[in-house]
Design a protein that fits this description.
alpha/beta, Trna Endonuclease, Chain: A, domain 1, 5-stranded mixed sheet, 3-stranded mixed sheet
Length: about 270
């Protein structure tokens, strides 16, 4: 049986891939087995991968909001759009937990022209500029043109000192981050050009998915107990992560949620 990906490409349905994604979300073996029994009779030749994802997400919610929230992580990152500004803030917060000092949304005069930099990092006296490439489609990939363009920007900036983190410093390295994946050519070019890359699944075993799960720094958009409008209001208020919400619980009252709903939201948030 064939399934249709977001790109329109048709590939064979792989039960093992669905099982793996369900288990990564924390679903127990018996839950995975029951969900497969519910989903597979509804599959048909040419069904979209998006439809399968929605079915799995809905059935997971019936078992556990927390497991469904983890399964929904990739879509939750897309929900940080459409412009990508909240994604940049989210990436900054992730690196803060990794021990970096961070600054966001800066503009510098390079050797030739001025440049906007999404995020700056400082650790062990090394300054790294981060350029975020946000995609609003789950299966979109960042191709080789992106690292080629960003390399030219980095080269225009790296030869000058700037007032960074309280003193004059060079920008020493460059990291490109995307919420989806890189094409093979993009990764080859980046490696050849000494650019660092971070995506959903790269570097292997240390991509965004693994880092987020390890640090337990989930975006506020992954919570299944909040509406889209409520999540948007929290993002505007700079509540970007579930950890932010737990640190500022009073925002749930500001959203005028009932005491019962507040309890449900906090239960889900605390279990993530």
């Amino acid at each position: 049986m064939k399934i249709t990906k977001f790109s329109g490409e048709q590939v064979d349905y792989q039960q093992e891939k669905l099982i793996r994604s369900l288990k990564k979300s924390g679903a127990e073996d018996h839950v995975v087995s029951e969900i497969l029994q519910q989903i597979e009779p509804q599959l048909y030749d040419g069904i979209s991968s998006k439809k399968i994802y929605k079915l799995a997400f809905q059935y997971l919610k019936n078992y556990s909001n927390v497991t469904a929230a983890r399964y929904n992580l990739k879509s939750a990152m897309v929900a940080l759009g459409p412009a990508g500004f909240y994604f940049e803030k989210y990436i900054s917060k992730i690196h803060e937990l990794l021990g970096y000092k961070t600054q966001i949304n800066l503009t510098f005069d390079g050797k030739c022209v001025s440049h906007e930099v999404d995020v700056l990092l400082l650790k062990a006296d090394v300054v790294t500029m981060i350029e975020c490439k946000f995609h609003s489609g789950i299966e979109a990939k960042t191709d080789v043109k992106v690292p080629m363009y960003i390399l030219s920007r980095f080269n225009d900036l790296k030869e000058r000192k700037y007032n960074l983190f309280g003193q004059l410093r060079f920008i020493n390295s460059c990291l490109i981050v995307t919420n989806n994946k890189f094409t093979e050519d993009a990764l080859i070019f980046a490696k050849c050009s000494n650019l660092k890359m971070l995506s959903w699944d790269y570097p292997p075993k240390n991509g965004l998915r693994e880092i987020i799960d390890r640090l337990k720094i989930y975006p506020i958009t992954c919570l299944t107990t909040l509406t889209l409008n409520e999540k948007e209001q929290l993002l505007v208020a700079n509540i970007i992560t579930v950890k932010d919400l737990l640190a500022e619980k009073n925002w749930l009252e500001k959203l005028q949620l009932s005491s019962i709903r507040i309890k449900r939201v906090l239960t889900e948030a605390n279990q993530l």
